[in-house]
């Protein structure tokens, strides 16, 4: 388990690899694997603060464009919730479309557990007044309510 070795996980290399896997022909078959890998990276505290800078939001964008299955939406919502819990990630996440991703997920009418992840991610952002205009302009609050 590389997570137990400090510095063993190089987020930019892993994120680039995940992005390339999704860009290849037949990427639909790899969506689940890439989702799980991204979720694992978002859970690990050693990588959570770095994967947004490494391009995680592009991988999220790719995942949402390839699949709207309940499993993919749940995984992506969980990733967004985990990553947005760290203040260091929030500015980049908002700049790269996080609120729009959440709105897209919620509009797909997923199960309640997915909505809970979306609400939590939005709540993390709402704690910072700086993001209130972004949340309101994207329709995030209206969509969640």
Automatic annotation (TrEMBL):
Superkingdom of this entry's organism? Answer: Eukaryota
Record protein name field:
Armadillo repeat-containing protein 8
**Which source organism does the UniProt entry give?**
Rhizochromulina marina
